[in-house]
């Protein structure tokens, strides 16, 4: 057999792929006439090639159910179009965040990613399937829990609930920041667990911020009533929070998880100086502000609000918001204070705005932002 | 099988416009057209059915979420494969805790298990030899071969999806078919004409 003829192979491969032109097919035909072995190989191989099957349904769930699942997981779907008028403003705002995120997505692929519910079975509780929803850095998620409760998950946050959620109790575990609009059900209290406090509600809207790297946990109540208790002394520490109040829980210093050594030192320093361990304080919110321009809830409306933050603190927020890594080469610059709001800006535009307030120099390489003095 | 003819391409354009307008049945059609292919494609990289399905789900969820902006996508098919590929590479990078890039030199490419259809006029021995030969192809070569055979993609589409030139696709296909032919050598017993005539 003549196996050395590359030209025949090229023509034949093109024929298989449907890429061969009329003249190329003729040329192949010519070659084959004088090469019966090659012809025999091609007959056999073509037979195999054509036996390919279209991949069937790979899942056990029917395609219908699966498709419904995808529609459901999408934050902005047709059902919401039929929602009461009251919601429309909220929804539109939310959609505009999605549009903004697409712009960012063009730069860093995969922004505004909606992570589907991950099902992991634990050996200990086979029947309790854990559902984990993650919003990565630079992305946000909105989800609908089985009981109808709506949750907005901020960047770099994780929400976990198990399969018994709907039947008996409504318990979720939060790492990061989320805004909850809880469906009323007096029989089944809704409980949010964080690393330091538990929040028990009957039907209300509130924001919880509990990032592992930050020294405090915050719960802000928008309406309704919530009850807050410390994780480690649930009975004795119960506190009732009223609307427009914000609860701040300062973690024991050892509990502040720091991922980078440089952040560790700065956070420990801040925690040691300003915050007593395990301290709970309740602060009233300004009465005349609306949800969308309040620092605690503005993110739900696609705004990153900051008031007198040091550049170092603002950088932490920006890292999550824009999915970047910000480092300072100059200490003085990191202590600059800023107040303002980002809405649709990308990281570069945001930094340009900040430069109008204080002079500094920045460079962006991929996801790394380095900030230095002018 | 292949949806790459000019007509089908127009179909995809129409489908894209309807999806952008929020037409759920159109989105369903897009889903039906590509879901199985993309899952298979993701599976060939991540080698876990659950992970593959999850990754492709994310791609579709993102499309439905951002549907008002999908008109800027030039070639929906290439986009879907690219998005799936990137998601799979990200997944593998996370799992390996290091960046995994193309070409797929470090990745085992897992092809679909094929059942021998009854219409096949090949002996079992030959079939096994073909499968072994395909499986032994270098990762990137195998991936290209797979996308063209199993997914019916054109050279240009494969080139766009894998960020390589059409020339490379052509060359890799020559390598693939050449290697398979080489491996089959000695196992193909061509019926001699004499015998053939006797019977």
Protein described:
The complex is a heterodimer of chains A (374) and B (199). With 374 residues, chain A is of the alpha+beta class. Chain A contains ten helices and 19 strands. In chain A, strands 1, 2, 3, 4, 5, 6, 7, 8, 9, 10, 11, 12, 13 and 14 form a 14-stranded mixed beta sheet that branches. Chain A has a three-stranded mixed beta sheet with strand order 16-19-18. Chain A has a two-stranded antiparallel sheet with strand order 15-17. In chain A, helix 1 crosses helix 2 (22-33). Chain A is elongated, with a radius of gyration of 28 Å. The model of chain A is unreliable at 57-61, 76-127 and 258-277 (pLDDT under 50). With 199 residues, chain B is mostly helical. Chain B folds into two domains: 1-101, Orthogonal Bundle (Rna Polymerase Sigma Factor, Chain: A); 105-199, Winged helix-like DNA-binding domain superfamily/Winged helix DNA-binding domain (Arc Repressor Mutant, subunit A, Orthogonal Bundle), CATH 1.10.10. In chain B, helix 7 (155-162) packs across helix 8 (166-184). Chain B starts with 5 loop residues before the first helix and ends with a helix. Residues 1-7 and 193-199 of chain B have low confidence and may be disordered. Classes of the chains: A alpha+beta (374), B mainly alpha (199). The interface between A and B is large, with 54 and 62 residues.
Fold blueprint:
The complex is a heterodimer of chains A (374) and B (199).
Chain A (H helix, E strand, L loop, with lengths): L5 H12 L4 H12 L2 H15 L12 H11 L4 H4 L4 H22 L10 E4 L7 E7 L5 E4 L5 E4 L3 E6 L7 E12 L8 E4 L3 E5 L3 E6 L5 E8 L2 E5 L8 E3 L3 E6 L10 H14 L5 E5 L19 E7 H12 L2 E4 L2 H4 L2 E6 L4 H11 L3 E5 L2 E5 L2
Parallel strand pairs in A: 6-7, 16-19
Antiparallel strand pairs in A: 1-2, 2-5, 3-4, 4-6, 5-6, 6-9, 7-8, 8-11, 9-10, 10-13, 11-12, 13-14, 15-17, 18-19
Chain B lengths: L5 H15 L3 H23 L2 H17 L10 H21 L27 H12 L3 H11 L5 H8 L3 H19 L8 H6 L1
């Amino acid at each position: 057999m003549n196996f050395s003829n590359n030209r025949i192979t090229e023509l034949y491969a093109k024929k298989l792929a449907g890429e061969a032109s009329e003249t190329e097919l003729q040329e192949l035909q010519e070659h084959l006439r004088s090469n019966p072995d090659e012809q025999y190989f091609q007959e056999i191989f073509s037979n195999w090639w054509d036996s390919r099957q279209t991949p069937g349904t790979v899942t056990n769930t029917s395609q219908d159910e699966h498709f419904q699942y995808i529609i459901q997981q999408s934050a902005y779907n047709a059902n919401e179009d039929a929602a009461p008028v009251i919601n429309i403003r909220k929804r539109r705002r939310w959609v505009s965040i999605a549009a903004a995120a697409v712009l960012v997505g063009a730069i860093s692929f995969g922004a505004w990613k909606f992570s589907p519910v991950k099902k992991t079975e634990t050996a200990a509780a086979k029947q309790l399937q854990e559902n984990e929803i993650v919003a990565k850095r630079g992305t946000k998620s909105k989800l609908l829990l089985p009981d109808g409760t709506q949750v907005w998950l901020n960047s770099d946050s994780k929400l976990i609930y198990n399969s018994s959620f709907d039947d008996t109790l409504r318990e979720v575990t939060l790492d990061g920041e989320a805004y909850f609009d809880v469906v009323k059900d007096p029989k089944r209290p809704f409980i949010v667990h964080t690393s330091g406090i538990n929040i028990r509600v009957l039907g209300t809207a509130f924001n919880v911020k509990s990032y592992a790297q930050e020294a405090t946990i915050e719960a802000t109540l928008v309406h309704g009533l919530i009850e807050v208790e410390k994780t480690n002394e649930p009975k004795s520490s119960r506190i009732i929070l009223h609307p427009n109040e914000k609860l701040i829980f300062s973690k024991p210093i050892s509990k502040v998880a720091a991922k980078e050594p440089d952040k560790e030192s700065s956070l420990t320093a801040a925690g040691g100086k300003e915050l007593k361990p395990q301290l709970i304080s309740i602060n009233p919110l300004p009465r005349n502000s609306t949800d969308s321009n309040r620092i605690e809830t503005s993110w739900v409306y696609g705004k990153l609000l900051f008031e007198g933050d040091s550049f170092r603190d603002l950088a932490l927020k920006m890292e999550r918001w824009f999915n970047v890594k910000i480092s300072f080469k100059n200490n003085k610059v990191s202590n600059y204070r800023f107040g303002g709001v980002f809405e649709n800006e990308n990281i570069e535009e945001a930094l340009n705005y900040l430069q109008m307030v204080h002079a500094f120099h920045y460079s962006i390489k991929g996801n790394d932002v380095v900030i230095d003095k002018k | 099988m292949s949806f790459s003819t000019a007509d089908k391409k127009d179909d995809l354009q129409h489908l894209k416009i309807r999806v952008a307008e929020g037409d759920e049945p159109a989105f369903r059609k897009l889903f039906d057209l590509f879901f199985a292919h993309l899952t298979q494609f993701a599976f060939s990289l991540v080698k876990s059915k659950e992970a593959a399905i999850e990754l492709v789900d994310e791609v579709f969820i993102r499309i439905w979420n951002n549907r008002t902006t999908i008109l800027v996508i030039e070639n929906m098919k290439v986009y879907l494969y690219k998005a799936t590929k990137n998601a799979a590479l990200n997944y593998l990078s996370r799992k390996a805790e290091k960046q995994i890039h193309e070409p797929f030199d470090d990745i085992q490419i897992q092809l679909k298990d094929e059942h021998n259809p009854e219409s096949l006029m090949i002996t079992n021995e030959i079939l096994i030899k073909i499968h072994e030969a395909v499986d032994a192809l270098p990762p990137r070569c195998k991936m290209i071969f797979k996308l063209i055979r199993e997914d019916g993609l054109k050279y240009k589409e494969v080139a766009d999806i894998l960020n390589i030139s059409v020339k490379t696709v052509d060359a890799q296909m020559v390598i693939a078919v050449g290697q398979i032919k080489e491996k089959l050598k000695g196992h193909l017993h061509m019926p001699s004409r004499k015998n053939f005539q006797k019977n």
